[in-house]
Amino acid sequence: MSKDEWRAALEKYAEAKGVRLNPDSKHVDFLLDGIFSIQAETGLKYCPCRLRMGDFSQTAALLCPCNFETQQTWLEQSRCWCGLFTKK
Predict the structure, then answer these.
(1) Is the pLDDT assigned to residue 86 strictly greater than 90?
(2) Architecture of domain 3-87
(3) Do residues 63 and 47 lie in contact, with contact meaning Cβ atoms separated by under 8 Å?
């Protein structure tokens, strides 16, 4: 999947969740570059802002998109940890 295809998939995901991708396209591009860099290294699209653990069962929770709606940052700042998603 290309970066543009992944962006489109994330936009579709965001719409279904009632949120949106960050309107700052440079920030989104930066994060997508990080996701794809990690994918090249690990084979999986992990959120670039979170440290991966050695145990896959713990690390699986960090696959993009992560469960950002439970994070304090989402509740207090209306954005996920890395800022890929924001509240509408």
Answers:
(1) yes
(2) Alpha-Beta Complex (3.90)
(3) yes
Q: Is 62 exposed, middle or buried (0-12, 13-18, 19+ CB in 10 A)?
A: buried
| pTM, rounded to two decimals | 0.80
- Number of neighbouring beta carbons within 10 Å of residue 85: 23
Tokens of 50: 């979170």
Domain assignments of the chain as residue spans, ordered by start: 3-87
pLDDT in tens, 1-48: 899 999 999 999 999 999 999 999 999 999 999 989 989 988 888 787
Compute the distance between CA of residue 17 and CA of residue 28 in angstroms, rounded to an integer: 18
CA distances from 34 to 17, 44, 66, 84 (A): 23, 12, 14, 11
Hey, what are 66's tokens?
A: 């992560």
Residue type, 83: G
